Amino acid sequence: MERSLLKSAFTNSQLVAFINATREAYLKRTFWQMLFPLVYTTQLTWESLTGSAGAPVMADVIEYNSSSPEKTRRVLTKATGDIPKIGIKRKMDEKDWNDYNVLKALANDSNKSALLDLVFNDIEFCYTGVLARTEHLCLQALSYGSLALDANNNNGVITETTVDLGIPSGNKTASAVTWATAATATPIADIKTVVKASEEAGRGTPMYALMDRATFNYMVATTEVKTEWQGFTGSSNAVYLPTFEQVNNLLMARGLPRIMIMNSSVRFENGEHTLSTIAPWKTGYVTFVGDLRVGKTLHGPIAEENAPSVKNVATMTKNGHVLISKWSQLEPFGEWTKGQANAFPVFNDADSLYILKTNATTWS
Question: In the chain, how many domains are there?
């Protein structure tokens, strides 16, 4: 490992400013930080608690000069595991390096953009790559209650079984009729069923129903929703599909959760370098939450941060949970950029979350 060949191309303050701008632009298109804000931990393990909250237990009305009745301490259960490492890197080879030097020698306003792209493109690529994986982990966890890594979404670790994050099985329900069957599906009735279960468990009415766009499109096209909308507005137009805003107005008027569409997408590159687009939110699943801060993204220390032999050679900067490193090597020639993090989403209170499966199949 040698010092970065591009060390003289930018100052540390320029690098920090670039990553800050990249982070701000990218996070506007993602959901994970709103739902699972970052929390640092010195331990590379995670745990989600169940049975940790709910409606308060009432104190008893008692006689004067008598002892207060003792209540039991509820046993908490935990879903636990190790915080995984997330990593991505990219190489600037001999041709890229020669292109950079040619552009640098001919530097003027017309090729300034191309020169900056060569300097900063790999940094942006690796930084947003870690953010994209964080988005994938968080939304997959919230939409399904568990995580699975396979050859279709990960080129590293493959999980033999799904990682269960502790949402009780009783909080997972399925529709009687798939929402794709417009004539007979009953999405509003299904939502009411989930709301009733939450209220009876002492958790109140969920504030939000989170779903992907395809699921919302099925919902709004159902006869039940169109009929409810006609009754709500006095309209006689049986063909008209209510808008997103109108459906939310209808639901809130009925005392039901507001819909949020989780329209997020990331790209996956497999071992053969074939790209595919993946929707982190699991299609056909609706998750009901009382608060948009459903958990936290735990992130822990990264070994290279505290390795003097590496820090003295590689150019490094940390932003949030992402460490960016740049270094070069002589044989084979190349300039490397790497992004990495040790991070994983956990729920604050898994018992408070309810998930509705809308395709009329039972949970496996």
Answer: 1
